[in-house]
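This part of the workshop introduces the protein records we will be handling. Getting from the letters to the tokens is the skill we practise here. An example says more than a description, so a record of this kind follows:
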Amino acid sequence: MLAPLLPRAEASAIEAFGATKFKDELEAGQHLRCDAALALALAEPTRSSAASADTRRDVLGRREAEVADLVAEGMSNKQIGASLFISEHTVDSHVRKIFDKLRVNSRAQIAGWVRSSNHD
């Protein structure tokens, strides 16, 4: 039913984001759990709870968790730095550490992880 719309949607996304970013985000989306992908697609608000915050802190440090939350909100490194009063270079360092700790390679995957950890 929706198959005829896919080529147009893909072409539109490539035009909006560029071919490389589209490919990266498509790949990242393929690694999301079904519930995380649906929540992301439906733009559902995330639930925050003490338990999910504790779980995130077990994996990431406090500042890394803050950076991950802001990445999930779609903020750039420059915006995150301004929000947290740290340099863009420091944000970049945190993002690289988050990639390593979560074993992901895109900001979309960080967002998916944040959303899924908020729903645990």
